[in-house]
Every structure is written in structure tokens, then in C-alpha cells.
Amino acid sequence: MVLEKYGDYIFKFFVYLFLVVVLLTTFLPFWNILVLSLNSAGDTVRGGVYFWPRDITFSSYQQILNDTEILNGIWVTIKRTIVGTPLSVMVITMLAYPLSRRHLVGRKGFNLYFIFTMYFGGGLIPYYMVLKALNMIDTFSVFILPGLMNVFYMIIVRTFMEGLPIEVEESAKVDGANDLTIFFRIILPLTTPVLATIGLFQAIGHWNSWFDSYAFTYSNDLKTLQAVLVKILNQFQTGGMVSSAQMLADSAKRTAVSSDTIRMAATMVATLPIVIVYPFLQKYFVKGMTLGAVKS
Asked: Kind and range of the H or E element at 145?
């Protein structure tokens, strides 16, 4: 008995140790990026800046936020996230609901059809040709319409709905509710946890997306924040290839901004908003809300 007790303590110790190691390996790089973005470039080249900035300056952030291209990219990214996320969640949910009903005629065929699209695609060039034929190239709709349906998320929602007690739906039908009433007034509230989860994933996808803006838009007014960030990183990566003598000269002049600090600040500007949103949705990452709702 005593050995079992000490065995539990040892097991918990290693579990917590493992979790602490995972926390440090994921948090410390992010923290180091923040520290370097707040440290002056002239002081950074001396090295040794890891956990706290020695010479705090907000010059890198001022330079980034004074850039109209970045501000426009932030606005485009926010707009596509606000518009695209709820539309996508609604489309996914409205498809998952009928496919979760076992009495749907041809249910297996529909499921196989959507699963097929997960494994086989036409490639980038046919995809571009379809978008061009639909007049979506260089328009805001290219950010929204092509990504409305995500089959993987649909399968997750469908599986969740299949696990809901059938008695809830049957009792609603006895009271005279039709399918639309059941969907909007019963199914949607019960699926809030999974909808919040896929909604967060879709929002992160919209926020971090850059390739569609890079490949399918030409106007600077339609460039997302991530596409602008890629441009900045490439620009300052090239500009950052300076000699050691130049780095020492910058250090002597106490330069506040460099290619490294600009890259770090741009990364923080692109990352922080979605990190701030996450805690507000974390409470929904729990098991279904219907546990114990039906008494047998």
C-alpha cells in the first residue's frame, strides 16, 4: 500500500516535470522574441539578451505601426476573420446536421463524397483557373468563399452531433417542432463547445493565412497582415546581411532599430491578437454540455 502511494507521487512528479518542460520549450522562444523586439538594436548586437530587455525601446513598434501598408493589412485580416469565421462555422454546421441523421437517404454516399475531397484535389493551377472563372481573383471574396467548407471540421461536428441523445430530438418532434426549429433551438445550443472549438481554429486559419493573399490578389488594398509580414521578413532578411564591422558600428551608435528588431516586432504584432482571444474561448474546450441532460 505504501509502495503504491509513493509510486503515485513519483508518477505525478514526472508528469508535472514533463508539463513544465513542455511549457518552457513553447513559452521561452515566444518570450525571447518579445524581449528582442523591445530591446534597442545597438544593445542587441552585444548579445546576452534572453529574459529581459537591457535597453527598452518601442522604436520598432512605432516604425511598424506607422506603416500604412501594415495598418491596411491589419484591417483586411480583421475583416476577413470577422466575416469568414461565423459564415464558415454556420455552413459546416448546416451540412454536419443532416449528415448526422441516420434516416437521411443516401447518407453513406454523401459522406464518402466529402471524404473523397479530403484526399484528392486538382492542384494549384486548376484551383486558380476555377477562381478566375468565378471572377474571384483580386477580390475580397477569394478570402471567404473558397474556405467556407472544411470537411475535417465538418466530420468533427457531425460526430459530435451523432453522440447527442436522440431522445432530445424525439421529444421536440412530439411537441411539433420541425427540423429547422430543432436545428436552431436545440442542436446549435447543445453543440456550443465544438462550434467554439472549430470557430477558433477557423479564426486562427483566417488570421494566419497569407498564401491566398499572396497568390490570388494583386491590389495592395487586399494584402493581409501575414502577407505584408512575409514581405517585411524577406525585405529585412536581405537588408540584415551586414558585415561584423557594420554591426559594431550600429552598436556604437546605439541604433534603436535593425532588421532583427523589425522582424521580431512584426512577428509580435501578427501573433498577439489571436493569443489574446484564445483565453476567452478556452472555457468551451470541455466535454459536451449534454452529459446528464437525459435521465433514464
From this structure: none
| CA distance linking residue 206 with residue 184, whole number of Å | 26
Which triple of cell numbers denotes residue 125? 493551377
Q: Are 201 and 293 in contact (CB under 8 A)?
A: no
Apex CA 291: angle with CA 288 and CA 293, to 5°? Answer: 120
Residue 213, Cα to own-chain centre: how many angstroms? 16
| Contact (CB, 8 A) for 183 and 97 | yes
Q: Are the C-beta atoms of 40 and 255 separated by less than 8 Å?
A: yes
Instruction: Give 2's contacts (C-beta < 8 A, 6+ positions apart).
Output: none
Task: Give the closest residue to 149 by CA, choosing from 179, 173, 113.
Answer: 113
CB burial of residue 155 (10 Å; 0-12, 13-18, 19+): middle
The per-residue pLDDT for 186 is 87
Query: Which three-class secondary structure state does DSSP give residue 243?
Result: coil
Measured in degrees and rounded to the nearest 5, phi and psi for residue 45 equal -65, -15
**Distance from C-alpha of 183 to C-alpha of 139, rounded to nearest angstrom:** 33
User: Which pLDDT does position 76 carry in this prediction?
Assistant: 92
Residue 80's pLDDT band (boundaries 50, 70, 90)? very high
